[in-house]
Amino acid sequence: MMKIRRSPSTERGTATYEALLRAGASVFSRRGFRQASVAEICRRSRVANGTFYQYFPDKEQLFLTLIERLTHHLQMRLKASVVPTAPAIEQLQSALRTHLKFIDSQTALYRVFREAEFIHTGLPKRLYGQLAQFYQEILQTGQSQGQLRRLDPETVSFSLIGMAEFLALRYIFWGRGLPPRVWSTLADLIAHGISTQQPIAPGEPSPSPMPDTHIAEPSQGQQTRARLLEAAEEEFGQKGFYEAQIVDITRRAGVAHGTFYTYFPSKEAIFVELVREINAQLRARLRAAIAGLQDRRQIECAGFRAFFEFIHKHPKAYRIVREAEFVGSPKNAAGRWYYERLAQGYIPALEDAIVAGQIRALDPEALAYALMGIGHFIGIRWALWEQRAVPNSVFESMMDFILHGLIPLDRQGSLDS
């Protein structure tokens, strides 16, 4: 990380430096990194443009400074929240509660943190890796003392981070705060998992339906539209939304520049349509993977496996989905639509499984977002960062954690959630 150009050495200099950081956090949160400008940051902080460059060489350095500071504060809060002599499961529950409360208290700045992976590609690996290491240390100590089940600590750590991040997404960024039912669901989930004592019903996925060979040949217009979407997926997937250009999309699709506007009014419009197409493709893949299964626990296993296969085969598509959270206003971003659309079908299915006695009586909405968060972060850690299929050992450890939690089975029931 680059050094600031001038370390504040006086009270006035420190005040100016802090004012720039506060203004940067506000502007980045509202506009995103790409659309934020140094001029607006200076206006908001009441600092001259020239003064800005005495402290930071560019807006990216200010952005990175904010991220480093936020991560440091979060790590300090997490460490302070843990009582080393407490049972390991209580340490984890306390840390996750602190993690979520920290996000709730730093909402504007945390929006900036979530965008970091699209600005500095190595940053999220390092910062999430540091958070994972914190959780891993608690897990390893708890396992060595026989307090926790011996599941892969790294897999469980990224699962815990995913749960916290997606619950924050639903209830803090999109909602009005974390209701008590979220806390109880989170504590119960990590301790006991979702599975009840009811035996898992036998069943095998049905073969994927054969494609209809009588589908009508697409029209020339439909073919052109499909080529534009395919080209857009390549361009957005490689360059990101803000760097990709319509002229590059049309060139890749082999159509005239003006033809683009026959099908899409803007770059944002084709981006949003692409997110919707990806969502539809994923849901179709999930439906095919779980067809014929009746037990929710088997469905979760088959669904997660299909999800990981999808993002492994379509890494550019999933990069687009992740960036979609930062395209458009926070309330209307395509990324929010994408996850809410998945949750619309997920929540009722979990409710039915609770009624059937297949999974524990946890809050269905909180559970849906926690499970989506687990899949998201396990997928990012292995399928996207390492660009390989999620290892079977990781998958098995993740599913064991989801189904049975961290408390040893012979001690289940000893914890007050």
What is the fold named in CATH at topology level of the domain at 220-359?
Answer: Tetracycline Repressor, domain 2
Tell me the total number of β-strands: 0
Query: CATH superfamily name of the domain at 220-359?
Result: Tetracycline Repressor, domain 2
Instruction: Give the name of the CATH architecture of the domain at 220-359.
Output: Orthogonal Bundle
> Quick check: average pLDDT?
90
Described by the principal axes of the CA atoms, the overall outline is: flat
Give the CATH class of the domain at 220-359: Mainly Alpha
Structural class: mainly alpha
- CA-atom Rg in angstroms: 23 Å
What proportion strand? Answer: under 5%
The low-confidence parts are none
Strands, helices and their partners?
Blueprint: H1 11-35, H2 38-45, H3 49-55, H4 59-81, H5 88-105, H6 107-115, H7 122-144, H8 153-173, H9 180-192, H10 220-239, H11 246-253, H12 260-263, H13 267-290, H14 296-313, H15 315-323, H16 334-355, H17 364-384, H18 392-404
